[in-house]
C-alpha cells in the first residue's frame, strides 16, 4: 500500500462513519423527543400513508360518536314528550269512561267535555313546541332524518317521527258495507232494503291483504264475521268489533200506545200498550238478565243494545188506536261513518223486522275494504281532536279512539327506544373500533422507547469513537516527516 500525504484515506473513512453515526444519532434524538417513529416521509413513506389513513378514521370515529350521542339526546327528547302525551291520553280515556256511565246528566258530560277540549289543545301544543336543535320533532315536519354514525360516507341510522299532534293521532275506522236491518217479506228493490247475499271481503291493511268469505247476513251474526276478521288480523293489521244496536223513534205514543214483541237469544219480550219510550226502556232493563238487552232514552230516542250481540227480531207491532209512527233506524254512534243505509223502517207497517247489527273495522293505520256486491269502504281517521263525549255513544266511541291513539304513540315510542338502544350499541362499537385503530396507528407511527434508547446509546458511543479515530487519522500524514528527517 502506497504511503502518501496528499490523500488521507483513513481520515476520509473515519469522517464518513462519524457523519453516519451523527445522522443516526440525530434521528434517534428526534424520535425520542417527538415520541414518533415516523416524523417525515423519509422515515417510512408507506407507514406514513397508512398512519394518516388511520388518523382520518380515528378522527371520524370520534365525530361519529358525538353524532350518535346527539341522536340519543334527540330521541330522548321526543320520547319524553310522548310520555306526557300518553299520560294525557290516559286521562282522556278515564274521562271517556266516566262520561259513558248512564248516571251522568247532560251538564255532567258537558263539564267532562270541557276538560277533554283542554287536553286536546295540550296534546297539539306539545307536538308543536317539542324541539331539538331548532327542529320540531312531533308536528310532522321532522319526517325522516339520518344520523351519520360512521367515519365513512353513508354509514347512517335513519329515524322517522310522524305527526303526533291531536289532529293526526287516533284510529282508522270503517263500517261494514251493509245495513243492519231488513224485512224478510219485501223484494230486493224495496227502498232501504238490502238483500245481503253471500259475499267476500278483501281487507287491505298496513300488514298485508287477505280475503274472507261471509255467508248471507240473514244466516249469521256479526260476531261470526268479527271472529273471521280477527283471526286474520295478523295478516292485515285490521281488527273488527260488532254491535247489535238500533233506535226507535215514536210519535204520538202517549195517545197511541205501542204493542210489539222483541225476540232475541231464543227469548221473547212482549210489550203491551206502551205509552212512552221510558216504559219500554224500563221493561227491557228489568229483564236484561234474561233476554240480554239493555236500553236507555236520549233526546226522545230509545236506544236498544244487545249485550250478547245476537240478532233481534221485532214482530207483531201495532198501535192502538192506529196513528202512531214508530221508526226503526240504525244507530248513530257519533262516528264519521254511519250505516250505509239511512232509510228507517216503520215497525207498525213491516213485519217482521230483523236487526242484524253492524260491524266496525279498526286499525292504527289506514286500510280499505273491498266487498263484492257492496260499496267499498276506505277507512277514515278519527283523531283525538274529534272526540266528543257529550253523549253516551260519543263517549263509548272516544274510548276506542283513545286506545288507538295510545297504541299509535306507543309504537313511535318503541321505535325511539329501539333507535336509542341501537345508537348506544353503535357508540360502543365505534369506541372499540377507535381503540383498535389507535393501537394499530401507534404500532406503525409511535416510537418504541426501549429500542430507540438502545439505538441512541449505540450511536453516541459510535460518535465518540468516530471522533477519536478521526482525530488519529488526521494525524497519520505527520509520520511522513520522519522519512524527511533522515535526508
From TrEMBL:
Keywords attached to this entry: Bacterial flagellum, Cell projection, Cilium, Flagellum, Secreted
InterPro entries found in the cross-reference section: Flagellin, Flagellin_C, Flagellin_C_sub2, Flagellin_N
One annotated Gene Ontology cellular component of this protein: bacterial-type flagellum
Span of domain Flagellin C-terminal: 399-484
Flagellin N-terminal domain location: 5-141
Subcellular location: Secreted; Bacterial flagellum
Gene3D superfamilies: 2.60.40.4390, 3.30.70.2120, f41 fragment of flagellin, N-terminal domain, Flagellar export chaperone, C-terminal domain
Top-level division of the source organism's lineage: Bacteria
Presence of keyword Secreted: yes
MF terms in GO: structural molecule activity
Function: Flagellin is the subunit protein which polymerizes to form the filaments of bacterial flagella.
Homology family: Belongs to the bacterial flagellin family.
Protein name per its UniProtKB record: Flagellin
Organism: Echinimonas agarilytica
